[in-house]
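Researcher: For the annotation table, I need structure tokens for Guanidinium exporter. Please keep the output clean. Sequence:
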Amino acid sequence: MTWVALIIAGILEVVWSYFMKQSQGFTKLTPSIITIISMLCSFALLAYAMRSLPLSIAYPVWTGIGAVGAFIIGITLLGEHISAVKIAAGILIIAGVIMMKFSSSH
């Protein structure tokens, strides 16, 4: 259950980062509210996961999911530029997250 909470927390990190962009500096109400609610839920699930997972596992996995998710959302929904270097960096982040997962005894 801890890993499920951590994965959901990472997905919510992607949600809040996307809606923070859509809020245009917190000047649009609905995206701002979605940002704040998803942030709170993401942090709460991360805190729950950290009750049994080490910081050295939980935080890098959470940020890795968020980073790769934001990268994918930026390219697919926001039309951001894609390059071979960005793709390689995304693959390295994914590899790091997988390695963190397998290095944990939890």
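Researcher: And a one-line annotation?
Model: The chain has one domain: 2-103.
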